[in-house]
Amino acid sequence: MKSCILILGSVLVLLAFSCSVAAQKSETAQQVSYCDLVKAPEQFVGKHIRVRAIYKYGFEMQLLAPPACCPERGAKIWVEIKSELEGDSLKLYRKFPKGMGLALATFEGKFDGGGPYGDGGYRLKLAVEKIETVEATAKPSAHHDPAWVPKNCETSNAAPSKPNTSTVLHEAQHSNRSGESFETPPGYVYDALQ
Predict the structure, then answer these.
(1) Residue 46: left if φ>0, alpha if ψ -120 to 50, beta else—which one?
(2) Which among 105, 112, 117, 172 could bridge 58 via Cys, Cβ 3.0 to 4.6 Å?
(3) pLDDT exceeds 70 at position 62
(4) CA distance 116 to 118
(5) DSSP-based helix, strand, coil % in the chain, nearest 5
(6) Domain annotation covers residue 7
C-alpha cells in the first residue's frame, strides 16, 4: 500500500512539473519594436518578447542593433542564444556566419534587466529561445556594412566609426579591452540570404 502511494505521489509530481513546463513554452511572446524596447526597457523586463533586430556578434560581442534608425538612443542589449534551440530555430541559427557576423532576424525570448551581462557593459539581456525568421546574414567587411544595416545611426557610446567602415568591426574594436588592434579575418565577404 505504501509503495502504491509513493508511486502515485511521484506520478502527480511529474505531471505537475510537465504541465508547468508546457505552460512556460506556450506563453505568448509580446511583439515589440526594437526602438520601443530600447526607449523603455523597464516595461519589458521579465517578459517573453518577439523583436526584429540585427544580431551583431564576434569576439566578446553579442548584441542587438536596430533594423532601422531609432529616433532616440537607447541602452545596449546583450544577446544570449540558448543552446537548446531545436527544429526550425536551430536550422536558421546554423545559417549565421561562423565566428563573427550580422544577422537580420526576428528573435523570441526572455528579456532581462539588472545586469551586468556579457563583458559587464550591458544592463539588459535577451535570452533567445526561438529564431522565427532570418531575412539576411553577412560576414563583416572592413570597408562597409551591407545595404540592410541602417547608416549614420548612433548605436553605441563608443567613438564614432569612420565613414564607409563596418559597424560590427567597429564594435569589436571597442569591445576588445586589451587595447590591441583588431584585424579583419581573411576572406570575409558578404553572404546575404536569398
Answers:
(1) left
(2) 172
(3) yes
(4) 7
(5) 25, 30, 45
(6) no
Alpha carbons 70 and 74: distance in angstroms, whole number:
9
* pLDDT tens per residue, range 110-155: 999 988 999 888 999 999 999 999 999 999 887 788 999 998 775 4
CA 136: distance to chain centroid? Answer: 15
CA contacts within 13 A on the Cβ side of 161: 22
Expressed in angstroms, the distance from the first to the final Cα of the chain is 64
CB within 8 A of 34, min separation 6: which ones?
51, 52, 53, 64, 65, 66, 67, 68, 70
- 189 falls within a domain: no
Contact 48, 108 (CB under 8 A): yes
What pLDDT is stored for residue 193 in this prediction? 41
Q: What residues form DSSP beta bridges with 113?
A: 124
Q: Is residue 6 part of a domain?
A: no
Total domains in the chain come to 1
Please say whether the beta carbons of 32 and 106 come within 8 A: no
Beta-strand relationship, 101-117 and 48-58:
antiparallel
Smallest Cα–Cα separation from 59: which of 20, 22, 98, 26?
A: 98
CATH code, domain carrying 48: 2.40.50.140
